[in-house]
Predict the structure.
Amino acid sequence: MLKNMFKKSNPKSEIYAPVNGKIVPIEDVPDPVFSQKMMGEGIAIIPSEGKAYAPVDGEVIQIPDTKHAIGIRADDGSEILIHIGLETVSLDGQGFNVLVNTGDTVSVGQPLMEFDLDYIKNHASDIITPIVITNSKDTDKNYTMTDEKEGKIGETVIITASS
């Protein structure tokens, strides 16, 4: 019992799949802003359904007017951007239904957004969904991407951050 009192807290934190689908390396995203990691370290998922859920416990810090993305600050300080599809900013909010507001506290597996996958397939350049740590260059954390090929919401750890 005393041994547990002096144990260091786990320096690792986990980011879970926010959407169900096929996991692909960020380098395979057909957009250089993501594939060249200009926005930060990350991974991508080709969604199999139009629902996005919180990948971490944290706070919603950004929802663009175009509703195509959500930014969350995890409890460990990592800032995570979930960007639904590519060139979806041009859809001007069409096909997106955001279920949270900036400032909301969220927990892993909590619904964030519904999106019309068919509409995005037909009106945007791609449905691939990058999940990026936008402040990865500003932290002392190391990010490890999963080797898993399929992501399941709230179950599959897609990124592990360690100090």
